Amino acid sequence: xxxxxxxxxxxxxxxxxxxxxxxxxxxxxxxxxxxxxxxxxxxxxxxxxxxxxxxxxxxxxxxxxxxxxxxxxxxxxxxxxxxxxxxxxxxxxxxxxxxxxxxxxxxxxxxxxxxxxxxxxxxxxxxxxxxxxxxxxxxxxxxxxxxxxxxxxxxxxxxxxxxxxxxxxxxxxxxxxxxxxxxxxxxxxxxxxxxxxxxxxxxxxxxxxxxxxxxxxxxxxxxxxxxxxxxxxxxxxxxxxxxxxxxxxxxxxxxxxxxxxxxxxxxxxxxxxxxxxxxxxxxxxxxxxxxxxxxxxxxxxxxxxxxxxxxxxxxxxxxxxxxxxxxxxxxxxxxxxxxxxxxxxxxxxxxxxxxxxxxxxxxxxxxxxxxxxxxxxxxxxxxxxxxxxxxxxxxxxxxxxxxxxxxxxxxxxxxxxxxxxxxxxxxxxxxxxxxxxxxxxxxxxxxxxxxxxxxxxxxxxxxxxxxxx
Length: 469
Hints:
- The chain is of the alpha+beta class.
- Among the domains are: 65 residues, CATH 2.40.50.100; 49 residues, Helix Hairpins (Orthogonal Bundle); 152 residues, Elongation Factor Tu (Ef-tu), domain 3 (Beta Barrel).
- The chain has 7 helices and 22 strands.
- Strands 1, 16, 17, 18, 21 and 22 form a 6-stranded mixed sheet that branches. It has a 6-stranded antiparallel β-barrel with strand order 2-11-14-13-12-15.
- A hairpin with a 2-residue loop joins β16 and β17.
- The longest helix is centred in the first third of the chain and has 32 residues.
């Protein structure tokens, strides 16, 4: 019985499941037969522009202050008392215009002194070139002849003097022999030292020796006799040589050098005299004046501060940009004193090395027009034309977007779809950017609405502001 009930329950459950499945199939059949609605293709509004060729320039902006191109503290070239002052502070003067005059009495006296010294030096040379007077030469020659005669008188003995000297010697010798003979007669007796014969022998011996000396002296002069006479002769001959040729070549050269020195001294005195007129060193303005009439001045203290009318702007360019700055580059200046007016200029100086503290390079820009309106100390904004390309491909800066860290643009194709392209960019200004690769002239690029675009998206071109987002 229980088995029959279980079988009936199973059969009933199967009938219920089958009935439910058929009902579900019948309910879904109308949905499977109905076609789903087609989704409309999305069209994105964008703003566009055409890539075209044009001029692109790299302009660097700096701020600086106008300064006088030339400035100097004027030092006088001479010392003295100021006789007159010819300018006042703020006066404009030309190069060479007199500023002040120093009293010149001292410098005129120095010129006269230098002129006299030059005249003396020239006269000395002229006197040297004339040589000795004839009378001086004759006197020197006579002195030489006299000295030579004195030497000859002593050095040469004539026959009469020689005969007389020989006779005197012979007489003395005979007297000596006679005295010796008389002495010999008594010498045997002993103690004969004080006898007349001994005394006569001694005197005869002395007389003989004197006669022999006189003979030798008269016939053969000694060196002691000749030496003083020969010295006098040499001195006389030297004086004659000096009289005949009193100056050597080096003496003439020394005299000419003295003339040159005197000429230089005179030239220096004239230069110092010219310095009593203090002149303007260049065209400019007297910025300061430190003297009055009667002031004493010297080359150690400035009398005035001088500045040129020409001005220049000094700006400091960082190391990263100095390679783009070159002498002769064009520039434009905006001066706060003249709003809305541009002053053209050019780079006139680029520092060869950087400032050690700031690591910047000093660049000077000189105005080329409107210089007469500018003054030192004015504030200036300077625009430097660092690089210029006259015919390069340009696109609006708003057309550049960044995709995967690379610059890119969306190019509108003929079927109004966009193509995503990577581009290489170059110079740019506030409106346009240079395209070096990735885009061709005449192609249309999206300038607004890129945030909603993907490669191949359908777009509608409109340039109404605010339409594309």
